[in-house]
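User: Predict the full complex structure for these chains.
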Amino acid sequence: MNTKAIVLFSGGQDSATCLAQALSDFPSAVEAITFDYGQRHRIEIIQAQKIAKIANVSLKIIDLSLISQLTKSALTHINIIIEHKEGELPSTFVPGRNHLFLSVAAIMAYQKNCTHIYTGVCQTDYSGYPDCREDFIKSLETTLNLAMSRPIQIHTPLMHLTKAETISLMKKLGRLEWYKETHTCYEGVRPACGQCPACQLRLKGFKEAGVQDPLEYFGTATDLVCDDPLKS
Amino acid sequence: MNTKAIVLFSGGQDSATCLAQALSDFPSAVEAITFDYGQRHRIEIIQAQKIAKIANVSLKIIDLSLISQLTKSALTHINIIIEHKEGELPSTFVPGRNHLFLSVAAIMAYQKNCTHIYTGVCQTDYSGYPDCREDFIKSLETTLNLAMSRPIQIHTPLMHLTKAETISLMKKLGRLEWYKETHTCYEGVRPACGQCPACQLRLKGFKEAGVQDPLEYFGTATDLVCDDPLKS
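Assistant: Here is the predicted structure of the two-chain assembly.
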């Protein structure tokens, strides 16, 4: 296969939508990569593998345990409490994480003579992660072009979408059923808890999009949605 | 210790000069990092440790074996012949290597509340490595500032120096004796072979600077210098 696009694929809802978009743009010429960096829940990688199989896309798992050597984040250390104080970066923040992911993807792309990278970063609900913003992505594109003397285009199809709009995009792309396998829950359980801030945000998005979430939840999860789950 | 500067330190002549410059700028507030990425010669890391000890600087060795998973370069695969055809990138080129090194250093710097990074990249004799050029460094600085919402300053004291000028700088900084332990030889031997292109380039620099190279060579190495060693 002649790879034309590489998708940063975490096994979550946003990156699954990106994978669908990339496959729509470059049919049969997409590869996915996922990073193993000692994240809180291994279930994310397992689900990424399941979706890649359904999508008939090759998935490369890259060992980036390096990150957990360099940071002290709730995403990588199970004993740090996940919280988000108003006006502060969430404690799940790994500084420069997306920067590193995209840089590694670009080196891989170079080797494959491939110039397109897809990532599901989103400025709309970026929760204070600076390396999800469009100005960062544009600057990194320029830097990578200079670093390797080859054009690299970073596609961010979800950059300005709300969660509901992302779901609508996936519906349009005809891959809604992949969401059954995507992982969102902070508790790391399947069926999903439906109560943690991540589940609540997900359910709010489906409600707004007027789409039934195919994911399995404990209980009748849609009843649990509150107006602003992260601030509840 | 309150770290103020992190130095990318390979154990080579250029990065040793950078370490000396950083220590002159930020006395007793410097840390060094070296990357273990499956490079051809382990001797580089051993020499880096020796020099760090002499300099009384903490040295962190970061496992970046990731790179050898992603590239097929002569630096990381012993069966690829080192050569440099006119107008082409040398076969030792690992695309995006400096970009990755500097990005990892920036994440480490963030954790240490430190904003200064030193690297020995040099545009003067960059041999076609695009991520040694000043326009790349400036662009990466901007990108890292955006990625982590914190100023990161990348110092490149050797950017516009010739090899001879780098040696003169080291003389001025009073650390010429460190060069006895720096590793240059492509053959990976100590005493150095004195004949490979890297040794020849090194010797040419010392000759032009009018300084005696404290490194041990097989035979009378200074006799071996030709006018343009890389094209001989």
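Strands of chain B lie at 5-8, 30-36, 58-63, 116-118, 153-155.
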